[in-house]
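Suppose a classmate hands you a notebook page containing two proteins, each written out with its sequence and a corresponding row of structure tokens. How would you begin to make sense of it? This section walks through that situation. The first entry is reproduced here exactly as it would appear on such a page.
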Amino acid sequence: MTASGEQWKDEAVSVVDYDPAWPGLFAAEAALLEAAIGQWITGGIHHVGSTAVPGLAAKPVIDILVGVDGLDVSRSCIDRVAPLHYVYAPYRTEEMHWFCKPSPSHRTHHLHIVPTGSQRFADELAFRDYLRAHDDRARAYAAVKQELARRHRHDREAYTEEKGAFVLETLVLAGRRP
């Protein structure tokens, strides 16, 4: 299923306190994804984003990163994850196949199918791992996100873009950028 038309209305940005149920929600989804697209997975299924960092406030959306050999060879995954209620949303198509679940207007999961050898794949894991290892940086990120959610409650794109500077600074600290 592909997002289009009326269905593609963003819900409001909301940052909530960490929920200890998030890792279990990821694990359940990872098992479903492994069964559906396991033959294409070359770099594992990873819980990324803020819900993957214990104690970190986050939008209550489970971000999942799946590593594949390439976007062309993994195009079949688009149809394979549709029965799991993932909606394909052509976003940054040169970097990934991106999906939301169950709909763009109410998201519980984001799925990023990304080439394992890409910068995006490595950066997603490095950012998560740095926040997991550095509580002070995770707390600073929570403050940034809460402020941006307040300012951009009805503009997800602005919320995401304005987090970019913090993410880049963190990738520098993690040794991923000069």
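The notebook's second entry, a different protein, reads as follows.
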Amino acid sequence: MNAKVIDGNKIADAIKQEIKSELEKIKEKPVLVAVQVGENPASKVYIKNQKSSCEDIGIEYNLVQLDNSITEDALIAEIQKINRDEKVTGLILQMPLPAHINSRKVQMAISSQKDVEGVSPANLGKLLYSDVKPPVAPCTALSVMECIKSTGENIRGKEAVIVGHSEIVGKPVTLMLLSSLLESATPTVCHIATKNLASHTKRAEILIVAVGKAGLIKGNMIKEGAIVIDVGINRIQMKDEKGEPVIDEKTGKPKMKTVGDVVYEEAVNIAGYITPVPGGVGAVTTVMLLKNLLGLYKIQIGN
């Protein structure tokens, strides 16, 4: 069978239009502040995409650039200063941080009312309550749920296997799949210590993979007709028919391509639905950040 491809760009565009429509009714536009410490090429790409997405729908985006040598205490003081700024709707802390800074400690300093990524203890804690929809939650986890929702399939009682148990994907997705008292899926969480991973993935009606390891899930590890959500984003070398690296004639360096954790070429012939990489979960994640921002704004104005 050929899986139906879950088009992340299409999902993102629809959500973006909903947000844009709501923002048009608002006089004072939300303000998103991003804090970046030092220079990081990957962060630059994220910042550019965030800024573009915000400007596209009328959200003010401001970047606070801090020196790489800033101390942990000074960074926390800067975060607290933004927390107190009534003009700021949401705050995002760009990762990674320098090695001398405890990123978790800094994230915990972000006010739950400004926490646009949904990673503060208070916001994560609300995911534990069934039938309570938190105003914000981790963006990638929300994106996973939107991709599943787009299939139109009822998740009630379905065997769901999550490979990866991070705080921003695996754990919150598990709680989201259990968010209804009556309509929840039946999740199993696998991780680096799981024995015989294939025995779990092969029974999954919903398979969510968020590890960051290219080629981890092969076609023979997938149940026929399953919904496969690939969260992984990996850069690997392109190979020719002989398995040799493909060299870029201009740079003389090996050409690279972006792939997920699932071997797409094999999985697409077995799954019922599948997210591509790129163009799947990642495409929806940025727009979920904006949806979180709108949720925070409504709370701040008492709506």
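A careful reader of the second entry would note: The chain has a mean pLDDT of 93.
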